[in-house]
Amino acid sequence: xxxLVGAILVGVISFVVPSYAQEDHEYAKDVKERTLRIPTCxxxxxxxxxxxxxxxxxxxxxxxxxxxxxYTVTLTTEALGDGLADMLVTALANTGCFRxxxxxxxxxxxEELELMGVQPKQTLKAADFIITGAVTALETQASGIxxxxxxxxxxxxxxxxxxxxxxxxxxxxxxxxxxxxGGEVIAARTVEGKSERWRFGIAGGGLFGTTIAGGWFEAFxxxxxxxxxxxxxxKAVTLIVxxxxxxxxxDVSVGEKVVMYDEKGNVVKEEINMPVSKAQREAxxxxxxxxxxxxxxxxxxxKNVLLSEDFSGCKxxxxxxxxxxxxxxVEMGGKRWVSTTYGQVILERTIPKFDPxxxxxxxxxVALSQRVRFPQGAALHIGKQGGPLVxxxxxxxxxxxxxxxxxxxENLVGKIVKIGIVKKxxxxxxxxxxxxxxxxxxxxxxxxxxxPKLIFDLHGEDIEKGIYTxxxxxxxxxx
Length: 479
Hints:
single chain; mainly beta; Rossmann fold; Jelly Rolls
């Protein structure tokens, strides 16, 4: 298998307008998720190979992939299956979590698996994991093509991409992960990749960097279908690593690589969060930064979930929170959010079983529009406004503070930001996008006087001017 050139995993999510909004207002058009999170490993879990994926999608008709009246691409389903399989194993190799076995060796593996144990020495030298799968959905909708459509016989290269005004694409894959030594299917997953809206100028080729090479993907270079395929691969990689890591050797650590991109697809920030391995934990080692050892913390919820609110049932105005100010429920990225519409909004929710003195965890997502003005931001007050625990995104989205202590100085404008807060005894830890940014000790007397409620304080000048703050996915758990 030839390694594919360029950045394989690039995830971009575009946001759509609320269904009830006027057509000339796109309330969330300025906010784009440009943060990609993929697994990474300090050492390989094992060797992986992928068999050619079959195609069961309606678009696969013999030797032709038919994507509707817009255009038809003449290619074999074998080219489709080989291209996806090669993309996936190359992406897995790029995580550092797997060694890759060339697809040319798959016939040998197939024979060994059919015999299962007859030639164990041959099996042991081959793959530890095999991925099999079938494409179950392959579709695209496009407008602005002009003429009666386009027929593209491979290996013709489009170059800058079809000049289509807008469109969307969807690709689905049923995949199985086989553990060769045990001869068992350890996971069966359905994965989908979607490109909801085509508004990024990707015909210019700037968003993704070097495009995927080889096979059928050349025909979809810089189109929504390529974006949907990248989305599919990113999701599949995360699921495969999650399923395979229980077979990892003791000295393997599985962490997370976070990559942030600007609007042109350039990497603006990259960081790796790597936990200690099982072997390190058994040896009593902590996370080492230079010569300094820090305790290793990660965000997690407690067993009892007291509140899980994604506003999926909200049509116009949220009714499950007490609202002071002007707020509406909007749609962004396929999810429902509560948005400020004009000025300050207070969302208050009493949670009867919530005990501020107990051990608990709170998680929520916020997003600030691309255009901001002071004092736009978002705060969470536990128990009462101005109480002993307040987490703020402030200073025009450029700072996170906890009780007026600076926890993080980073520009969070135009991004979806996940905030996590964990209380254990009198200690509180605050996480931003799963990275711990603050640890402090709470006053137990002050905490004991708090009411069982959350108060979100959101600031946004005017949604019609594109200046607003959004919130969703609020979860509260308790020990």
